[in-house]
Write a structure and sequence with these properties.
Radius of gyration: 26 Å
Largest sheet: 6 strands, mixed
Oligomer: single chain
Strand content: 15-25%
Distance between the termini: 68 Å
Structural class: alpha/beta
Number of helices: 13
């Protein structure tokens, strides 16, 4: 019996450093950081990186991305390393990809193709597979113009997983029909999601969306807090599907006057894990995963998870906030979202005692935790409780014994922090929603 083993692809990473990149004076560092991430993406997709090249240009060359002068140098590098493919750090136009692959006589991929390939490999639910197929077909449809890209050159490997490679002569109408069909199927999923969302909104349980850069530990955090067993791997985009779980924490805090109060009750909130963000997230993915990404917009609060040990954490935080702002700007549910920032993986800091720089000016609360080891998790419930109470009204009231139905309603909709039975009735201190 023969085993079909997927051949390892040996690739060279190529980037163009342009004048309009961020952080003037440190453009090379930014480019190298982006290439480091591209290398991790390539390895996640199953390739082995054997070289990299950076070309400095005022702007991308419209014909070949890197310019004709650099092609000979790249061809020489391909020959010396035995590379079987090239991956560019930016999305290529159809002409750029065609010209580059013709000049090098080798398989050429861009960052978008690699990310789409990873999503195709990791999609597990029916919705996830529909979203990935839609994104891939939209990407391919945009390349069926003019000479386009010789799809037959791709062969197998990275960029070919998912719905299957279309023949070169595939008519645009066939792909567009499939895209329309996928959109209809996804709309049914979106309708169901909106019904579920409205059901949550009609209830009283606050919803917290867990967001962050890819591979910062969001799924590990959700598992640690809720006892779930969601897949959590040290890989980029290990999980793509939105998951919501109930989180209960002990109500232990200070009361309205700042006096220490302990209660034996439990408070409940919903935690929603979302797909991780990344630099240069392909527009096709944002479009296809919009209903999933917009869970962030419809949540009451945001929990922003940051890899404290990442040397590029500030840039990663910037990417996350830019993506959130973009989603909010396009969402019907706009408005300010209060944020809890959790600096995760503090156990991986080079110097565990040096916590300088772990700040976030946009967050209402900042905690330092290790979701994997359980450090600092007990503080999360306390901070969540504080955040919720900030958006509620504090009352002190005596209810007559004839109004026990109202007391039951207060307990179900709000948070009772003190309850005393007197001759006149039940005296309570509580935090209630403003809409109570």
């Amino acid at each position: 019996m023969y085993e079909n083993k997927e051949e390892i692809e040996y690739v060279i990473l190529v980037a163009v450093e342009t004048d309009d990149m961020d952080s003037a004076g440190s453009r090379l560092n930014n480019t190298e950081v982006s290439l480091d991430e591209l290398e991790e993406l390539a390895e996640t997709a199953g390739a082995e990186v054997v070289g990299r090249m950076v070309q400095k240009l005022p702007h991308f060359n419209s014909a070949t991305y890197i310019g004709s002068g650099k092609i000979e140098e790249l061809a020489s590098l391909i020959k010396s390393t035995g590379a079987t493919g090239v991956i560019t750090d930016d999305e290529l136009s159809p002409a750029q990809m065609y010209n580059l692959s013709e000049a090098l006589d080798i398989k050429v991929m861009d960052r978008t193709m690699v990310i789409l390939d990873i999503f195709a490999a990791h999609a597990r639910t029916a919705e996830g597979k529909l979203q990935v197929e839609l994104a891939q077909l939209q990407y391919r449809l945009s390349r069926l113009t003019g000479k386009g890209i010789s799809m037959s050159r791709l062969g197998g490997g990275i960029g070919t997983r998912g719905p299957g490679e279309k023949k070169l002569e595939q008519d645009r109408r066939v792909i567009r029909n499939r895209v329309a069909e996928l959109r209809r199927e996804l709309q049914d999923v979106v309708t169901h999601r909106e019904l579920t969302r409205k059901s949550r909104e009609s209830g009283t349980t606050p919803v917290f969306a867990i967001v962050g850069y890819t591979n910062v530990g969001k799924s590990t955090l959700l598992n640690a807090l809720t006892g779930s067993e969601i897949l959590a791997e040290d890989k980029l985009f290990a999980t793509l599907d939105t998951t919501t779980r109930l989180y209960e924490y002990t109500k232990k805090r200070e009361d309205h006057q700042g006096e220490s109060v302990e209660t034996s009750g439990r408070q409940k909130v919903l935690l929603t894990d979302t797909v991780g963000f990344i630099r240069k997230l392909p527009h096709n993915l944002i479009d296809a995963f919009r209903s999933t990404l917009e869970e962030t917009c419809y949540a009451d609060y945001i929990i922003h998870v940051v890899d404290a040990s990442s040397p590029t954490r500030e840039n990663e935080m910037k990417v996350v906030y830019e993506t959130i702002d973009m989603l909010l700007s396009k969402s019907k549910n706009t408005g300010h979202k209060k944020i809890i920032t959790l600096f995760n993986k503090i156990d991986k800091l080079p110097d565990p005692d040096d916590r300088t720089g772990l700040i976030d000016d946009r967050a209402s609360y900042v905690l330092q935790i290790s979701a994997k080891k359980g450090d600092g998790l007990e503080q999360i419930g306390e901070v969540i409780g504080n955040l919720i109470r900030e958006d509620r009204v504090y009352i002190e009231k005596t209810l007559s014994y004839k109004d026990m139905n109202e007391l039951s309603r207060i307990k179900s909709l709000g948070e009772v922090i003190e309850e005393k039975y007197t001759e006149d009735g039940v005296f309570i201190k509580a935090y209630l929603p403003y809409t109570f």
